[in-house]
Amino acid sequence: MSTFLGTPPFPQAARTALADPQLRQNLAHATHTIRDKRARVVAEVEDWEALRQAGAAIKDHTLAHLPDYLEQLEAALTAAGAVVHWARDAAEANAVVAAVAKAHDVDEVVKVKSMVTQEIGLNEALAAEGIAAWETDLAELIVQLGDDLPSHILVPAIHRNRAEIRRIFADRMAAAGRPAPDDLTDEPAELAAAARLHLREKFLRAKVGVSGANFAVAESGTLVVVESEGNGRMCLTLPEVLVSVVGIEKVVPSFADLDVLLRLLPRSSTGERMNPYTSMWSGVRSGDGPQEVHVVLLDNGRTNALADDVGRTALRCIRCSACLNACPVYERVGGHAYGSVYPGPIGAILNPLMRGVGTDPQVDSLPYASSLCGRCEEVCPVAIPIPEILVDLRAQVVDAHRGSVTPKPEAIAMKGAAKAFGSGRRLGLSERLTGLALGLARRLPLVSAWTGTRDLPPAPRQSFREWWRDDRP
Amino acid sequence: MTAREEVLARVRAAVRDAASVERPTPVPGAAGGVELFCERVADYRAVVEQCTADELPARVAAALSGLTYVVPDGLWLDLPDGVRDEPTLSAAELDGIDAVVTAAAVGIAETGTIVLDHGPGQGRRALTLVPDHHLCLVRADQVVPDVPDAVARLDPSRPLTWISGPSATSDIELTRVEGVHGPRHLHVVVVG
């Protein structure tokens, strides 16, 4: 799974983000607005907690029986006329999409906004093969034309304001197709209209569409795409050929299970009772939509997460982004600091779970990008215990570095504590040294990241042992 | 080993010791009717009106006044002036038509959603996508209370399009703009 190239470990990346007042202002506005909308529509549902637990149970059940459901999905898709491909990793999935595009002799594809195709770096892989992949979601278009990175799962261009977007459209649209109108202002409605015209010519001529899927129904081979703008419907309906890249955790057993998930997702994600458009299709429908349909079932690290007894529940995630909006850390630093297409609390667990810990300092820093306040778990529509997984991953990071040349400061401290608590004499000695140690802690570079932002209590003049020995009546 | 065999083998190994989890019991939905449906459709800033079967032709004529429109086969209201999708219209031809008139499969009161299953009177998917106005006729007996009731009525082997208001985006500073790529005008008429 690719990360944003060159992103430094979280603490460094966060410092850069925190120094950008425009970014902080946009993020605060966005996260608070969506958070409030979500709270209002969630409060309308009589038994939201029962729905969450049902959503969690559907996903847990599916994951526990994933081999069976994947084979059932494959059979149903094939029976419905789709061609099913399997991909161990990003390179294999990208190769399938490129091969389909080449088989139809096209030099461009239109894309539905999809987290998974960002995860596998599909656009870059297709570009290397001489195929342009046009993003058609408004925010993704802003990100693509601006040669930028997405910063939020739901609203990827939330770090840009309207003036910046106007400039990007005015400067960059012409090179990609229909130019922006000369008199374009920074009114959101005008900017959206410019995107409509720019993309419409691409939709009308597109031969190959590429999508992800929010859900894949095992019993019927139905794929589901949830969206707002209609660009998804365009890509899923108008091209002759459709390729959908689907993570293996997206499967649900039956069509009836969509009931629960479609009640949970829009309310959690955009704070709407229902999103404007949801498309469902099962393979090929004669005379309606693409007549050649491919589905790529992708692993790319998902089985690593699946094998983790504690972290497995992260694969319940339905990519709503409620945890991002609820997170006090995300709210201040934004998505780029996480160095991945999956930012925020869910990114802080998904990235290490899928990619493994102990090899990349950037990934190893992510489980610490949290105050463990627990808001993410509270708002999660499928009740993923994110704080518990973060703590477990921190332990895994420490374990992975045990015995390495430069052990983590926490490891040294804990080792010291184990030694001190292991004997009464040593504990007595260390208590006498507490005052000295606290003074030192304020100055030591290794621990000043902790102490610099916290009030350390003054050390008592006398330790408990000393008091016991001297003052006992 | 093929990619298929290897991925499946990894999945099997990963869940070998996973505890089985029972599938959940259904969670009942809310209990609204046609009134709520109309309120909720209007919340999305779609146009919504209610009328009797007798009033319908005049309402439809008023809604389509001055517009060119396509009418799918099998619509239960006779609209002889509409363009037919026969022979099949190209995407570019559809782009030159102002509006489309369709029936629906289900209306969902709680969420203000119409669902098309692209059966008789609803046309193939492109018909309700490319023209800028969508006039959708929903019979009162097609309105169900909530999402579970809709899912129970729908057939997953058909393509399904769930529509909740006009196309919309909040991608620029979270300002809601109605109308990006799908129809910018959604007009729902509940009949009966």
Could you please describe the fold and organization of this structure?
The complex is a heterodimer of chains A (473) and B (192). The termini of chain A are far apart. Among the domains of chain A are: 45-298, 3-Layer(aba) Sandwich (Rossmann fold), CATH 3.40.50; 411-471, no CATH class. Chain A is built from 24 helices and 10 strands. In chain A, the strands form 2 sheets. Chain A has a 6-stranded parallel β-sheet, with helices on both faces. A 4-stranded mixed β-sheet of chain A has the order 8-5-6-9. In chain A, helix 3 crosses helix 12 (257-269), helix 9 runs parallel beside helix 10 and helix 16 (344-355) crosses helix 19 (386-401). In chain A, strand 5 and strand 6 (222-227) form a beta hairpin. Chain A is α/β, with parallel strands linked by helices. By secondary structure, chain B is an alpha/beta fold. Chain B has a single domain, classed as NagB/RpiA/CoA transferase-like (Rossmann fold), CATH 3.40.50.10420. Chain B has 5 helices and 12 strands. In chain B, the strands form 3 sheets. Chain B has a 6-stranded parallel β-sheet, sandwiched between helices. Chain B is globular, with a radius of gyration of 20 Å. The N and C termini of chain B lie far apart (61 Å). Classes of the chains: A alpha/beta (473), B alpha/beta (192). The interface between A and B is large, with 98 and 75 residues. Strand 9 (277-282) of chain A pairs antiparallel with strand 9 (160-163) of chain B, so a sheet runs across the interface. Chain B: This is Lactate utilization protein C. Chain B: Residues 93-191 form the LUD domain. Chain B: It holds the Pfam family LUD_dom.
Q: Give me the count of strands of chain B.
A: 12
- Major β-sheet of chain A, in short? 6 strands, parallel
Strand order of the largest sheet of chain A: 1-10-7-4-2-3
| Largest binding interface between chains | A-B, 98 and 75 residues
CATH class placement of chain B: Alpha Beta
Based on the structure, what is the oligomeric state of the protein chains? heterodimer
Label the CATH architecture of chain B. 3-Layer(aba) Sandwich
Overall pLDDT of chain B, averaged? 96
Distance between the termini of chain B: 61 Å
Highest-level CATH class of the domain at 45-298 in chain A: Alpha Beta
For this structure, the CATH topology of the domain at 45-298 in chain A is Rossmann fold
Assign the CATH topology of chain B: Rossmann fold
Overall geometric form of chain A: globular
Number of helices of chain B: 5
What structural class do helix, strand and pairing data of chain B support?
alpha/beta
- Name the average pLDDT of chain A: 91
Pfam families (chain B): LUD_dom
InterPro entries (chain B): FTHF_cligase-like_sf, LUD_dom, NagB/RpiA_transferase-like
Protein name (chain B): Lactate utilization protein C
Domain LUD (chain B): 93-191
